Amino acid sequence: MGKNDGFLLYERKNNGDIPPLKRTENFKEFHTYLDDEERRKQAARCMNCGVPMCQSAIKLAGMVTGCPLHNFIPEWNDALYKGQYDMAAWRLLKTSSFPEFTGRVCPALCEKACNCGNGGDIKEAVTIHDNELYIIEKAFESGYMKPQIPKVRSDKKIAVIGSGPAGLAVADLLNRRGHNVTVYEREDRIGGLLMYGIPNMKLDKKIIDRRVNLMKAEGVTFITNADVGNTVAADTILNEYDAVALCCGAKKARPLNAPGADAEGVMFAVDFLKSVTKSLVNSNLKDGQFFNPEGKNVIVVGGGDTGNDCTGTSIRLGAASVTQLEMMPCPPAERQPDNPWPQWPKVLKTDYGAEESIEKFGHDPRVYKTTIKEVYQNEGKVCGVKTVQVEFRMVDGKRTLCEIEGSEKDLPADLILIAAGFLGCEDYTAQAFGTELSARNTVQTENCSYATAVDKVFTAGDMHRGQSLVVWAIAEGRECAREIDEYLMGYSNI
């Protein structure tokens, strides 16, 4: 298969980026793409390993490495190298429902397990992430992505509650099986996390609409502004449908536990990002219906992807300064001896928001081993914070987060965005269907199952596994769809 010596002949070449200061002028996607010839060279670097760790999704040292979807990566890299674009798309879509989403927002677990990077230098891995995006966009461009309408319909009706990546994956596979699928979404647009949780510069909302319109053409019904468990009764759903999939995500945000955190100007990151994206798609920000950080000193609590999104969004909207607080220590620049391939590389990553902050303000926005000890208020509004450095110590035999004495520091703040993760699902929908919740506030199921204790009620995605990646939500949605199909038909061929 492929070019046996491609990894020796060609160096890794990533998609390009519009320069940081230029791209912060708008909310458009900012990547530039390689031409056909160069992309085929990148695909030729695939070694066609005897054991392709890239598609393994194995857990090592507490973290998963390799693709959770078990994508046929060597196969479609080979087809891409040969210019067999339709073949590449066919093999990609066999395992991946929405490569146009993962090709934009996935952190590329596959690349971290690529044999080309097994010397510890992950920069030399095959550009699997970029190759995936190229293949699916080529498929849309060529007309390969046409509605695939089931030739035979069953008499089974399934309700999917939530239209994020898990819900869309459940709906996609069950509809392709020939079942009648209706997706309920409480927001005004379909997409869940994809629509309002991820900024437009990472995932243009037209990409979501393109996929949703394709699914509509294939027979999936979508109902928006339908808050099941609130404005839509769970009993009505249970009586009308043969199976129900709960895919409402993990949206219970972790609060800031500090005196003064009730001040005006302290808010959850998800609310901030949602307001900006909604205003952007409704009016290109002209309606003013968003939380505006213009001219403000912004403190972001949390060093993950959501925190980075807050940084990038705040800069685009004219923040006077952005500081991002992270409780954990700064990761090393290179792999350490105790973190060998193919483990997930625990190394420092500088994402787009940090890059933009460095260019605009002259320094990295991230401050490590630091959290907020107190929020200062002036007439009920946030006006500053007291930070403190922290570290983990063993106290009474337990690993405990402790303050470092004398490390307090005051910072100006006009807006605090809490991006400290989530505490599981919002429980009202789960309770409306009578499902049990785990200690992690996720919907309870048996091990290796997506079925709840309530007859014909299933769950998938973050509502089932807790806060995780888009690729895991899609993987769970696909597996849940197969289990629902078996429940309805006695077997499954999806």
TrEMBL record:
Pfam families: Fer4_20, Pyr_redox_2. Pathway: Amino-acid biosynthesis. The keyword Nucleotidyltransferase does not apply. It comes from the Bacteria. Residues 23-142 form the Dihydroprymidine dehydrogenase domain. Residues 157-477 form the FAD/NAD(P)-binding domain. One of its GO terms (biological process) is glutamate biosynthetic process. Gene3D superfamilies: Alpha-helical ferredoxin, FAD/NAD(P)-binding domain. InterPro entries: DPD_II, FAD/NAD-bd_sf, FAD/NAD-binding_dom, Glut_synth_ssu1, Glutamate_Synthase, Helical_ferredxn. GO terms for molecular function: iron-sulfur cluster binding; oxidoreductase activity, acting on the CH-NH2 group of donors, NAD or NADP as acceptor. Keywords: Amino-acid biosynthesis, Glutamate biosynthesis, Oxidoreductase. NCBIfam families: GOGAT_sm_gam. This is Glutamate synthase (NADPH/NADH) small chain. It comes from Treponema porcinum.
